[in-house]
Amino acid sequence: MLLIKDLHVNVGDIEILQGVNLEVPDGEIHALMGPNGSGKSTLANSLMGHPGYDIVSGEVTFDGKNVLDLTVDQRARLGLFMAFQYPCEIPGVGLREFLRTASDAVNKGKVSLWDFTEELGNAMESLQMDDSYLDRSLNEGFSGGEKKRAEILQMLILKPRLAILDETDSGLDVDALRIVAKGVRTLSSSRFSSLVITHYQRILDYLEPDKIHIFHNGKVALSGGPELAGEIDAHGYSMLTEETEYLTS
Ligand SMILES: Nc1ncnc2c1ncn2[C@@H]1O[C@H](COP(=O)(O)OP(=O)(O)O)[C@@H](O)[C@H]1O
Ligand SMILES: [Mg+2]
After folding, report:
1. Angle between the 174-187 and 144-158 helix axes, to the nearest 10 degrees?
2. Pairing relation of β-strands 193-197 and 14-24?
3. What is the 3-state secondary structure (H, E, C) of 149-208?
4. I want to staple 87 with a disulfide (CB 3.0 to 4.6 A). Which of 64, 111, 119, 147 is the partner?
5. What per-residue confidence (pLDDT) applies to 241?
6. SS3 144
7. Under a CB-based contact definition with an 8 Å cutoff, are residues 210 and 229 in contact?
8. What is the pLDDT of residue 91?
9. C-alpha span between 153 and 126 (Å, rounded)
């Protein structure tokens, strides 16, 4: 399971994460909601080891291993995966080669080309992605929705133990949303967990999270069951007043 204890993270001189406490047990899907600028992407980037984020103090362990001591590629081999809020375009790197290289790196070359090709075909079919994407540069000229599907395709190929999806649902139409949610559910098992960062109740209708956490001012201000998403939908984040903060953990 993922365990985050009192995590403080700076960007430059500014403290963005101000004591995050969060647990995501194996086999569970947790949603992370919260106003723009509350630090959700900062948390995701910090978990993956983005060099622009200074870990000031706190602990992050996954299966008992200290994640913060690991390089980004070691984190990926441990089974951590992140779908970016804003996937970047990488001209000259073909999607097929990128996926094959990433798969080889994470699986230490143990997946045969035959099996890889078959899995890739199946994953693309489930995401309703045309084969022609494979011969294009990664994300280059992809629409917003296509980029998000390409992120989920990477997730299906890499089969992480923990997938952090940073607003993967933003900019997706309802059909694409359903497909993406199906992708996440395909991986569901006792050895898979997911932290789904979102603004919208809609994807949660498809994913049925075990728990919802509301982020506010760089920490988890409120945690609860799926009903919390409905309350946020109805009342907005203004319900996160000082009075509700005592409910934290
Ligand atoms: N790389 C960065 N450089 C400067 N400021 C940053 C950077 N990343 C995040 N921040 C700041 O940290 C705060 C939280 O941002 P972010 O984590 O993206 O929030 P959220 O994902 O919840 O919308 C914002 O005020 C943002 O401007
Ligand atoms: Mg964000």
Report:
1. 10
2. unpaired
3. HHHHHHHHHHCCCEEEEECCCCCCCHHHHHHHHHHHHHHCCCCCEEEEECCCHHHHHHHC
4. 147
5. 62
6. helix
7. no
8. 95
9. 9
Residue ranges in the chain modelled with pLDDT below 50? 242-243, 246-249
Helix (H) or strand (E) segment spanning residue 64: none
Give the span between the Cα atoms of 53 and 55, in whole angstroms: 6
Q: Is the CB of 45 under 6 A from ligand 1?
A: no
The count of residues in the chain is 249
Q: Which ligand ends up closest to the CA of 84?
A: 2
| Mutation probe of ligand 1 site: the residue of 7, 9, 10, 16 with most atoms within 8 A of C-beta | 16
The strands making up 54-62's β-sheet, listed across from edge to edge, are: 14-24, 2-11, 54-62, 65-66
pLDDT score at 246: 43
| Ligand 1 proximity of 102 Cβ (cutoff 6 Å) | no
